[in-house]
Amino acid sequence: MPETIIPPIQYGTVLGFDFGTTRIGVAVGEAELATAHPLETITVVSNEQCFSRIAALIKEWQPQVLVVGLPTHADGAADEATSLCRRFGNRLHGRFHLPVYWVDERWTSAVADSLLSEAGVFGRKRKQVLDQVAAQAILTTFFSAGASQARLD
């Protein structure tokens, strides 16, 4: 599907995703306030269980758009994780009929790691929340960019 730049999102709830093959971090944000908060980490057991949980979150939070962190190499080149993530975004769009935005996530895990260190979160607790804090960083990047990113049509 083609990508286009569209006007900024000015209001409404946004769900952000830090995609991984074993865990998906989820964060929720409010466009008008440009705030984001960690929500949960989905453990990927099967596609159906994963998308069932996402469906429940979409029903609960009623987002206007979905934001997915797009992994690439440090130089911006795509890799296998990039194509898997794009497939995930395409599935979100196909199942839930919501706009999907891509955000460069190259440094979000490092940001999440730093935030958790500052908060004194270590060990098992850190592992449980790292992906959702990375999703929060993805939404923060989305909002700081004026919420106008490449969109999946």
Automatic annotation (TrEMBL):
HAMAP family: Nuclease_YqgF. It comes from the Bacteria. Could be a nuclease involved in processing of the 5'-end of pre-16S rRNA. Belongs to the YqgF HJR family. This is Putative pre-16S rRNA nuclease. GO terms for biological process: rRNA 5'-end processing. Its EC number is 3.1.-.-. Residues 12-112 form the YqgF/RNase H-like domain. It is an enzyme of class 3 (hydrolase). Signal peptide: none annotated. Its main location: cytoplasm. GO terms for molecular function: helicase activity; hydrolase activity, acting on ester bonds; nuclease activity. It is found in: Cytoplasm. CDD domains: YqgF. Keywords: ATP-binding, Cytoplasm, Helicase, Hydrolase, Nuclease, Nucleotide-binding, Ribosome biogenesis. GO terms for cellular component: cytosol.
